[in-house]
Design a protein that fits this description.
- By secondary structure, the chain is of the alpha/beta class.
- The protein has eight helices and seven strands, in the order E-H-E-H-E-H-E-H-E-H-H-E-H-H-E.
- The protein has one domain: 3-Layer(aba) Sandwich (Rossmann fold).
- Strand 4, helix 4 and strand 5 form a beta-alpha-beta unit.
Length: 233
Amino acid sequence: MIIGASGDIGSEIAIQLGKEGYQLLLHYNRNRDMLVRVREQVERESILAELQCDMSNIEAVKQLLAALVFRVDIIIFASGNAYYGLFQEMPIEKIDEMLTIHVKAPMMITKHLLPEMIRNKSGRIIFITSIWGEVGASNEVVYSALKGAQNTFVKALAKEVGASGITVNAVSPGYIDTKMNGHLLAEEKDSILAEIPVHRAGTSKEVAHTISFLMHEQAGYINGEIIGMNGGW
């Protein structure tokens, strides 16, 4: 189950896993058109369902969970949004919305699906977090705080469910070439790239390959880790 499968990173994860033979439940909110790209590149039988839900709406999340009919062995949280601006000017409504999307909804979904994973003694829970969740970012204070909350949730839950055969990890990207960074001016992008030792942006495909690795049996001893993908930034 990929939460946020219609984003740049989420859709790339879906394509990667679909090609590897996983059966997919693809969540989207408004951008269903992005799922066309996934459908074009994976076998039709790989996609079990496309699930629409506004993750900022708790009642909608409850309805999504109540309607689930498929067993879920793996959850990948790739959804989210950012807010750029001074913290003191940020509307409280936007803070509430982002808190629900990044923290409340993932916790609700995880809590709902965990019992079956525990019964089956198997499961993978993976978050896409952010470098800002580790070091913080000016003008992205709330986003940084919520990604930090995801990181801590990963570390704590990993300790609680590891004995049940479930691993919980996160991939923490740095500067990735996605629409989320589309607001940056050319000179701002150049300044960031100059700070990154490998002197380039990461790609959604690289994130997807890391997610794929974490799902393999060979990665079963990796648990409670926040894996940085930032080119040494």
